[in-house]
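I'm curious: can you give me some protein's one-letter sequence along with its backbone structure tokens because I've never seen that pairing?
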Amino acid sequence: MYLPKHFEQQDLESLKSLLEAYPLGALVTHQDGALEANHIPFLVQGDLAVGGKLIGHVAKGNPVWKNDLTAQESLVIFQGPEAYITPNWYPSKHVHHQVVPTYNYAVVHVYGVLSVTHDEAIKRQIVADLTQTMENARQSTWKISDAPADYIEKMLNAIVGIELTITRIQAKWKVSQNRDLADRAGVAQGLSVADSAKRDLRMSQIIRTGKGVGRD
């Protein structure tokens, strides 16, 4: 990843907070000499640091777990907040007009070595931990025990547990650090009044129609 120093983020607590808020990672692996990407929710076990763990699971029918995953590093990409930045938000635009649009974003790249498990107890714990984390913010929470035991057993048999042992971490916060304080304040103000519900509405439209949506 291209990472100018002024965009580099090294605060591990901030990185962990992003992963907790945006747990869907793009897992990039080598498959038969080519790159393969799978989108999987992950949980951080313990600290987000070298030697730490990311855990998740994939469908047994997904071939990602069948390769020799320990032979090389894999990569998980976590995408946090992102937004288009219009030059109209910069006070400096009204002074000299020497401004152009850009795109702000926060991303974390976690590299590590993958391992897999078929152990039912471990898979059950992974699913329980993921479910509890995802359901925490809801008033009425769903638990594994809400479903019939034989059905849960069937579902567990259809998945494979995965674990990534972290070898290195890169993170990029491209959040207008290269602008002066007045322009940064203008960007923050512009974003604060944007319609934050639009993205949820777009997802709702995709679900309803099964088709893509525009920018509105």
Observations:
- Residues 5-180 form a domain with the Pnp Oxidase; Chain A fold (CATH 2.30.110.10).
- The mean pLDDT is 88.
- The chain is about 25% helix and 30% strand.
